[in-house]
Amino acid sequence: MHGYFLLSPSVHGRVTHCYGGSQALPQDVGTADCFDVVLAHLLESVEATGFGFGPEPTSVHDFIVHLVFRTSPPAHNGRSLDYWIETEIHGEIVPE
Fold it and tell me: What was the pLDDT predicted at 70?
């Protein structure tokens, strides 16, 4: 089971993203308009470790194919929490 929620487009300007979490004090933080730096760190990690958002070893090429075409969900999550993109919403969140 996967869980997520969708943000109103008006919130996107108050959101930042970083690969690996803010506890690591990342030098590079992205936004919806400038996500390439976060994606670059993710792909560097896949190249260095052979893992992406799941327990199965992968190559950068196969990982990109999976992201673009969502070929299949992982059979199990394994240590997926070792690889993540943190998203922070700055300001108030009001459920609708």
Answer: 75
Find the length of the chain. 96
- The residues pairing with 47 across neighbouring beta strands, listed in sequence order, are none
The pLDDT value recorded for residue 17 is 92
> Which of 1-10, 28-37, 38-47, 60-69 is predicted with the least confidence, judged by mean pLDDT?
1-10
Contacts of 20 (CB under 8 A, 6+ apart): 26, 41, 45, 83, 84, 86
Higher pLDDT, 1 or 28: 28
Mutual angle of helices 36-49 and 60-69, in 10-degree steps: 130
Output 2-10 pairs: Cβ under 8 A, ≥24 positions apart: 2/73, 7/89, 8/96
Token look-up 């009001």 returns: 94
